[in-house]
Design a protein that fits this description.
286 residues; alpha/beta; Rossmann fold; 3-stranded mixed β-sheet; 10 helices
């Protein structure tokens, strides 16, 4: 297939392009090459390349910045998604839309499934959920895929794993919140999961997160240090109320890949195994 990827320079995008390129022709674009906020540009580009599948990863993902600037968030995440969906409609391409578990309000006491009702708390969550609704309204051949707490990126990692490792190398102790829960998800695993999912032709909405028991941010940080062999830094629990942020975060962002479970499909590895592999790789790279 000819596969068009938007947001190809992000953490997930780099792994998605690498994994899909093993089997398909990949056209990787970033915002400079394809600004999804520009409807005419998106349609013109799609008509030129005639993709069989579009993986729409481009998004405004800074949760707090989205809260401070909702116009930019809705333009990128909602209108941008509409533009891509319309281009898929025009060119008869399948579409994968990467959404987020943050479409839920977090009030549930157990992991969310695809059959729970979304009720996003933040502008980021609302803008992504509106993107979901647009995809479903415009297309018949689509996969809406919700991701969890993402880790990966290797040398370009600027997220939780890299931050914890960097801080632990400098400080004797860290404080990490113990009242937020999620499903860590390795970007390499979700890339392979998307490749296998799009081979099925089973369109619909899916959760694609690391499997195994969900964890708190505190437990996630402790596991990172354990796998890195760092014993010189102690991690202390603290309430998220001690870190006021612009955007509200759901208490529960853990999820089950329930749709896949019902289909008898297991496309994702246990997050602990993936995290051990990733932290070991980072250590080998120095």
């Amino acid at each position: 297939m000819r596969v068009l990827v938007t947001g190809a320079r992000g953490m997930m995008g780099m792994d998605v392009c690498r994994v899909f390129a093993e089997q398909h022709e990949v056209i990787a674009t970033n915002i400079e090459e394809l600004d999804v906020r520009d409807a005419e540009a998106v349609l013109k580009f799609a008509e030129q390349v005639e993709p069989d599948l579009v993986l729409h990863l481009a998004a405004a993902t800074d949760v707090d910045e989205c809260e401070r600037n909702p116009d930019a968030a809705y333009l990128a995440n909602t209108i941008g998604t509409r533009n891509v969906a319309l281009a898929c409609q025009r060119t008869d391409a399948e579409m994968v839309y990467i959404s987020t578990i943050a479409v839920f309000d977090g009030h549930k006491t157990e992991p969310y499934t695809e059959y729970d009702e979304p009720n996003p708390l933040s502008v980021y969550g609302r803008s992504k959920y509106e993107g979901e609704r647009i995809v479903r309204s415009l297309l018949n051949r689509y996969y809406v895929v919700r991701a969890g707490w993402m880790f990966g990126g290797r040398e370009q990692d600027k997220k939780f794993v890299a931050k914890i490792l960097a801080l632990a190398a400098e400080k004797p102790s860290l404080t990490v919140v113990d009242d937020k829960f999620g499903s860590p998800t390795y970007s390499v695993d979700i890339a392979h999961g998307l490749l296998n999912l799009t081979d099925t032709g089973y369109y619909g909405t899916y959760h694609l997160v690391g499997t195994g028991p969900y964890c708190s941010r505190l437990a996630f940080a402790e596991t990172i240090l354990e796998y890195a062999g760092i014993t010189s830094c102690k991690i202390n629990p603290i309430s998220s109320a001690s870190f006021p942020l612009a955007a509200p975060r759901p208490r529960m962002e853990a999820a089950r890949n329930y749709h896949l479970e019902l289909m008898g499909m297991q496309l994702m590895r246990p997050w602990r195994a993936s995290l051990r592999e990733y932290v070991t790789e980072l250590g080998a790279r120095g």
